[in-house]
Specification:
heterodimer, A: about 70 residues, mainly alpha, 2 helices, elongated, B: about 475 residues, alpha/beta, Amidase signature (AS) enzymes, eleven-stranded mixed β-sheet, 15 helices
Chain lengths: ~70, ~475
């Protein structure tokens, strides 16, 4: 399994997150990154319409729904 | 004294004054002293506190005013539960010297119920990164074979209960951290409905998936412990305001009329279990059917869908909690925790939003599938416990676990022993009920447990 990102692109992602990692740390995380890409792709299949908003809502009253 | 009292049997013996709380506590302390050098289930033994608790309980019994089934019962807490004046580390170098000022709500409730606190139990670092050998304390070992893994992260609780060092203990469960150790250590562990038990004062990992719950040798003992944990707590924003249910109300009522749905594709296709686990599931189906339950197959979204959704939410929220320290104190974490959680800093906000939307879809799919079944049944873990050395760092990314679906849906789920396999290591089945039907779940699990011989066997090392 390979990543859609090159290792250089992945290093840029790590730098953007503000993590100061060794080359060994980065290489190790990069080796597992394809699994994360597989997960993020799976979440989008099947695709939802932009009007589909089943979860991210705000309730002005405190307390969990249905509690 | 019975070397392996359960909470229920000890409570009866205490009430009948056949044993005293001090005798029972000393019995557990002796076992800890004798066996825990091999198990590493405790990070700290609080002997003075335990004896003081035991003497106070003994005084209540002598005065004829015991507090109930947990008065004088020796327990211990996973070391993510804050304990006032007693170190609470999260099994991490970052909190090596952390001494909370106040008890967590659950610790307080169990203390008020009269429990005797024996100490603080091993976990995986911050309830996620394990088994780690590069943190200040070693990982807990499985009493059925100390070369093997306990699962986690409630690893110390699993080991200590199975070996008979404690009668019960606290765990937490964000992706399976109660039910995993219950399966590998051959005990009972329940992740209750999200919101039933307070998380206030417990080190968080993932706010929207963290649950607190108990582990014990039997289902009945879990019910007793859970009853004393449950109830609304305004300090936990997720805490339910429903009236606290009677969690012991279903015990000893059997399974006649209960409708059970077997999620066969979870354990036969999505992540095929080994023969011992499969036999445990098949035998359980047969047993429950013979006892009067109706059984049919249920189809849910695939385990891979739950894994993708759960993992992304878990590491995103965990990263948000640990971001500051991951940026400034990276090398003080154990390798497993920091590397697994680091992905949360690399995932986009859009990824997280898609995961949250998928979560609601998965929740609705499970609810729809349960319109005509009361209980779901599948595996607790795919195999017996593997060896603790050489556990793959990214194993959790490769094959989906059986437990995370119910962290996403928030419904109660319990793992209980369903037999023994290679090398005498236990295996477990997992059952789940609708949200807030924890009492029904306990009822069905206890009916299975009472009809099987698995509670008659303890680890060989614990006999010595």
């Amino acid at each position: 399994m390979s990543s859609s990102l090159s290792q250089t692109q992945f290093e840029a992602l790590v730098k953007r997150a503000g993590l100061s990692l060794t080359p060994e740390n980065i290489a190790d995380l990069y080796s597992a990154w394809p699994h994360i890409e597989r997960f993020t792709a799976r979440l989008r299949n099947p695709a939802r319409g932009r009007e589909a908003e089943p979860a991210h809502i705000f309730r002005p009253l405190s307390g969990p729904e249905g509690a | 004294m019975n070397p392996f009292p359960t909470i229920a049997s000890a409570a009866a013996d205490l009430a009948a004054k056949k044993i005293s709380p001090v005798e029972l506590t000393k019995h557990c302390l002796e076992r800890i002293g004798k066996l825990d050098g091999q198990l590493h289930s405790f990070l700290m033994v609080t002997e003075e506190r335990a004896l003081a608790d035991a003497r106070a309980a003994e005084a209540r019994f002598m005065e004829g005013r015991p507090r109930g089934a947990l008065d004088g019962i020796p327990i211990a807490h996973k070391d993510i539960y804050n304990t006032a004046g007693i170190r609470t580390t999260g099994h991490s170098r970052l909190l090596e010297h952390n001494v909370p000022a106040a008890d967590s709500m659950v610790v307080r409730k169990w203390a008020e119920a009269g429990t005797v606190m024996l100490g603080k139990l091993a976990t995986h670092e911050f309830a996620m990164g394990g088994p780690s050998f590069d943190v200040p304390w070693p990982p807990a070992r499985n009493p059925w074979n100390t070369e093997h893994f306990t699962s986690g992260s409630s690893s110390g609780t699993g080991a200590a209960v199975a070996a008979g060092l404690i009668l019960g203990g606290t765990g937490s469960d964000t992706g399976g951290s109660i039910r995993g150790p219950a399966a590998f250590c051959g005990i009972a562990g329940i992740k209750p409905t999200y919101g039933l038990c307070s998380r206030a004062g417990v080190l968080p990992l993932t706010y929207s998936m963290d649950h607190t719950g108990p582990l014990a040798w039997t289902v009945e003992d879990c019910a007793i412990l859970l009853q004393a944990m449950a109830g609304h707590d305004p300090a936990d924003p997720a805490s339910s305001t429903r009236a606290t249910p009677d969690l012991l109300s279903g015990l000893n009522k059997g399974v006649a009329g209960v409708r059970i749905g077997v999620v066969r594709h979870f354990h036969e296709t999505d992540h095929k279990v080994n023969d011992t686990v499969q036999k445990g599931i098949d035998d359980a189906v047969e047993l429950l059917r013979n006892q009067g339950a109706s059984v049919r197959e249920v189809v849910l979204p695939s385990l891979q869908d739950f894994q993708a959704c759960g993992y992304l939410i878990l590491v995103s929220e965990a990263y948000a909690l640990h971001e500051k320290w991951l940026k400034t104190r990276w090398n003080e974490y154990g390798e497993l925790f920091r590397d697994r959680v680091a992905f949360g800093g690399l995932i986009s906000a859009a990824d997280y939003m898609e995961a949250v939307r998928r979560r609601r879809e998965l929740q609705e799919a499970v609810a729809a599938a349960m319109t005509d079944v009361d209980i779901l049944l599948t595996a607790g873990a795919p195999t017996e416990a593997p060896k603790i050395e050489g556990m793959p760092k990214w194993g959790g990314l490769e094959k989906p676990g059986f437990t995370i679906p119910f962290n996403l849906t928030g419904q109660p789920a319990m793992t209980i022993c369903s037999g023994f396999g290679e090398g005498g290591l236990p295996v477990g089945i997992q059952l789940a009920a609708r949200p807030f039907e924890d009492a029904l779940l306990l009822r069905v699990c206890q009916a299975y447990e009472q009809a099987t011989p698995w509670r008659n066997t303890r680890p060989a090392m614990a006999q010595g």
